[in-house]
Structure formats: structure tokens, C-alpha cells
């Protein structure tokens, strides 16, 4: 039984409504809701919040300027009734300022215009879902880097993706949702979720859910959409939170797994400022109202123990985080976690398996084993494929002295969650000749799904002038065709 008294107060379709919620002055009638720069080009999506009757009497165009240079590059009109403009013939690696203006039909008099945004064209792999320039302060109440990509595909083939907006010590409280109706070839903006951070989209019994936090280390929350992601319920608090100083729930877009009549997902508790994170899970009955906080059980949180057999020796505050709940080949439930091994022996190449008591969700996890694993220093997602009988993941393997490199994305597989094999590098910065060094480029925090014979994934991508490899500027969509044959 589920709560049907749903108020769509978590989602905002317009930027002015969002601005009212966050206390920002967003009085413009025109808002740029999506940017997608590419090779010598820029795609701009905008929304108009004026009266429908006014819309018929206005002509919209994108006005483009070279940053720091006088004079306009050009004005590019939107086709009648369209809210997307594609500009070509731009210079890669150059920053452009842009805005969308509206003029009365047949005149040059501007009656409304958007705020100014920034974009830098350049070659980027995959399809750009969204982009934020590192010096674009449009969402500065949350941050200025797109992060935490999440994906779910509805039974009708409609794809929903989300990302939050991050900046270190920023508000970190905004997520954006986009949709694709054509298998990921094109994307359009759906809505904002505020406050929402570290969110994972998932489906259950005909509805779409978002499991997230309010902000970094804030309340663990869940909200529901009954109209395919357009509007969302007011979220419920599953686990009270704290902040980056006192500690609180930590997560990422990690899998939500159904097993033994319950939904399970990994959650950590702690903070980097406190030395790391303790590991746990939250779960709820598949028959429960997921918006009722009493439906959820949180396990006690298990601290990292350096005496675990196989643990690294030494290290700068070793700990675990961003766990994957996975069903083992023999039907048990485990949590496979990223392992912070910096400064230890070895410094990379290990992950931790903790065991979950799937019959007593109120009990703490217990140590299982330490395994060899590629890409343990960045978030990874593990899922089982019943067709191949293998577990798969996309990981950032280390191939240089920079153990935090995230510029190689590698497909790996395992028959048993313990023996992992490299299948192929899917994205490798060194193969493409991008101008930045490897500390500025990243393909990371991948979330993925299997679509028939293909594997599709989202990447938090840093290229073409990102602040650094960690603070990315793109969310990109990719498809690996016939991935089982690799």
C-alpha cells in the first residue's frame, strides 16, 4: 500500500519557481535549461515562462559573443515554435558568452532576454546530456560542476537521467533531470529537484523514485514521480543527516536491488573531515509505502578495521565508501565497496566485500574479504547480467603513477565477484590527443544499464577546460554495442 497524498513540491519546472525556493532573484522570462557544446558547435535549449499568447508574437534567437572580446559573433534564430538552437562553425577551445533574446516579430527591439551563460566547444566523446562551464555561476547556490549521473529506462523506452550540481564546500543541493525519447541520441530538460544531492533514480511498481540526500551529508530522503519524472512528491526523510563537519549519510548513485522481498541499497555514514565512513545498508519491503519513513530499516554502520585479513598496510586514513549491494552466485547478499588505499601497501587494486544479513536487515554488516579489483579509488557500479552469467562493471583503472587518475574507463567482468578480468578500455584519454594533462581529464562515476545486446552508460566527464579531473563540466551518454562480445 502506498501513500497517494502526493504534493509535487520537490520538483520545479521553471527556473523562476526554483529561484523562489532557493531565494535567488530569477526574474527573466527566458532561461537556458541545457547546454551541449561539441566539436565546433553548441546546442542551446531554453524555456520561456511568459504567457502562451506572447509566445506567438515573439522571435527567439541565441546571441553569441567571444568572451573578453567586443562585438557579437552572431545571432542565431530559433525555428518557429522551437526552443532549441544549434550553432556551428565555432572555434574549439575558445570561451563564448551567450544569451537567448526575444524580439517582437519583425523588429529588432529586445523585449526579454536570459541571463548570460558560458560554453567552450571541443571534441567530446559520446552525446552531451548537459554541460556547465566551471566559471558559470548560474547555479552557484549549489555549485558549478555537473556530477553524480544516474540513469533509468522506463518500460516504454523513455530514458530518464539525473545529475546533481557540485562544488567543494558549496551548497550541493540541486539536481536536474533530463529525458531522451530516441535511445539517447537527443536529450531535453524535464525539471529541477531541490534540495537533492547524490541521487539515484530507480523504478518500482510503475513509479519512478529518487533516493538521495538533501545536501552533502544531509538527510537521506526519497521522493516519487507518478508521471515519468515530470513532477515529484515532497520527499520523505529515511535517515536524519548532519553536515560535512559533524558527519552524516554518504552515498552516490548506487544500485537499488530487490532480494528476498526487500529493496536494498548501500549507505555510508561519516565524513572525510572525521577520517572516513562506516558502511551500512538501508532496506524496505517491496510491499511497503516507500514514502513512509517507518517502512525503512537502516543497519548499524560498521567501521573500517585495519586488522581485517587482507587489508592494506598503513595508508592515509584508509576507509570504504560507495558500496554496491549485489546478490552472489549462491544467493547471498553482499556489499562491495570502493576502498580508500592512498599511501598504503598496496596503494591501489583492492576492494572490500562486506556480508549483509538478508534475513535480519536490522543487524550490522560483517567483514567478508578483501579482493583484487581494478579501479578501487573511484566510484564503480557492479551489476549481474543473466544472459552472460557474468557480473560487469566500468572502472577507472590506474595506469600511471597518478593513482587518482580517472581518464581511463575500462569494462571488466567476473563470474563470481572475486576474480575480475579486463575486457577492454572503453574510453582512454591517451588515445585521443586531448590538450589537457591527465589531471584535468576524467571519465568517472559511471552509472549504466543493459539494453538488449548493448550497455549504455552516463559519465561525469571532464574535458576541454574543466576546473580539474574531479570537477567535471559534462554529463555524457555512451553506448557499447554488443558488449558481451568484447
Q: Give the low-pLDDT segments.
A: 1-8
Major sheet characteristics = 5 strands, antiparallel
Mean pLDDT: 94
**Structural Rg:** 23 Å
CATH hierarchy class name of the largest domain: Mainly Beta
Instruction: Tell me how many strands there are.
Output: 36
Shape: globular
In the CATH hierarchy, what is the architecture of the largest domain at level 2?
6 Propeller
* Domain tally: 2
* Estimated structural class: mainly beta
Name the beta content range.
over 45%
Percent of residues in helical segments? under 10%
Helix count equals: 2
CATH topology of the largest domain: Neuraminidase
| Strand order, sheet with most strands | 1-14-13-12-11
- Please give the alpha-carbon distance between the first and last residues: 44 Å
Describe the structure.
This is Exo-alpha-sialidase. This protein is mainly β and 486 residues long. It folds into two domains: 12-119, Immunoglobulins (Immunoglobulin-like), CATH 2.60.40; 127-485, Neuraminidase, CATH 2.120.10.10. Helix content is 2%, strand content 47%. It has two helices and 36 strands. It has a five-stranded antiparallel sheet with strand order 1-14-13-12-11. Strands 4, 5, 7, 8 and 9 form a five-stranded antiparallel sheet that branches. Strands 19, 20, 21, 22 and 23 form a five-stranded antiparallel sheet that branches. The protein is globular and about 75 Å long. The two termini are 44 Å apart.
